């Protein structure tokens, strides 16, 4: 057999091994009706929010956690009742009993470790923003197609009842035709040691929280904006954007937003239609210990007497997110935020940064 034939055989065997491994994981996941998860790093968002929530899911089972410091991994595993602790990310990815990976690493590590997880045959739910740029995010398309795994972005709002209800109301034309969106998202954090304030880690307001306002706008309009204009104020010492405002020009209307990392903590978003408006009270950090509300004004009466309030029972959006992703993988469906959607969001972020530099409108290049 010549070298070319040998190489083709090795490639074919390699692909068959990857396919068999995925089938094995999928089969055993279905047997228990749960996807078996491993978590990369002991990041606070995972330890304090994501893991405890996912442990309550119907379709999620947290089986392992990894850190570059084995003692940290063991401490987290003991505290959270996780069976396995690994002292490296590579060891976790090599575990044949793990079906999917949750990736909450710093932004600059999202794509590299998502690629490694996919190459190991693991499905990946990656924290937002998915990448440092749209071009970097696009590299995952070939990886996904080659490995056959599912890759999704962790915008938890897409599984939460108040956002699903918004979609229903907009489809029902409850406020007529959606024409405008206005949103604000802010918090105060001036710690230079925090990765959210480090440029090399993809820190700053737009990447950390502005991405939510962009995603929400794209979700509501069901479109990609054609162009954007942005204005950025950077911290003089840390150089991250501490205050960013933007206008997104959609074929169906416009969205305006402001996000900031050195402002009073606040979040609210309004959707304005031709005959009414919808307001989401706590749109992004929905509390897991109390109901949430949206307000629907179909009258336009300025004193609010015509506002109808819809209340949603207490639930944890991270539990719902984990279950939605796991169920989609187990049943062969589509995850709430697929890779193409994530790339579209990154393209808008890129354009806003470019607009702030150019001082003008920038066309979206997806």
The major pleated sheet works out as: 9 strands, mixed
Tell me the β content: 25-35%
* End-to-end distance: 45 Å
- Unreliably modeled segments: 1-31
The level of helicity is: 25-40%
Looking at this protein, list some descriptive labels:
single chain, 366 residues, alpha/beta, nine-stranded mixed β-sheet, six-stranded parallel β-sheet, 15 strands, globular, disordered N terminus
Q: How would you describe this structure to a colleague?
A:
This protein has 366 residues and is α/β, with parallel strands linked by helices. Helix content is 39%, strand content 26%. It has 10 helices and 15 strands. The chain has helices at 3-32, 44-54, 70-80, 89-93, 110-119, 134-147, 161-171, 205-221, 317-331, 339-358, and strands at 35-40, 60-66, 84-86, 100-103, 123-127, 151-154, 178-188, 227-234, 241-250, 253-260, 262-273, 277-280, 292-297, 307-312, 362-363. The strands form 2 sheets. The protein has a 9-stranded mixed sheet with strand order 14-13-12-11-7-10-9-8-15. The chain has a 6-stranded parallel sheet with strand order 3-2-1-4-5-6, sandwiched between helices. Strand 5 (123-127), helix 6 and strand 6 form a beta-alpha-beta unit. Helix 2 packs across helix 9 (317-331). The radius of gyration is 21 Å and the shape is globular. The model is unreliable at 1-31 (pLDDT under 50).
SSE order and pairing:
Elements: H1 3-32, E1 35-40, H2 44-54, E2 60-66, H3 70-80, E3 84-86, H4 89-93, E4 100-103, H5 110-119, E5 123-127, H6 134-147, E6 151-154, H7 161-171, E7 178-188, H8 205-221, E8 227-234, E9 241-250, E10 253-260, E11 262-273, E12 277-280, E13 292-297, E14 307-312, H9 317-331, H10 339-358, E15 362-363
Parallel strand pairs: 1-2, 1-4, 2-3, 4-5, 5-6, 7-10
Antiparallel strand pairs: 7-11, 8-9, 8-15, 9-10, 11-12, 12-13, 13-14
Helix pairs in contact: 2-9, 5-6, 6-10, 8-10
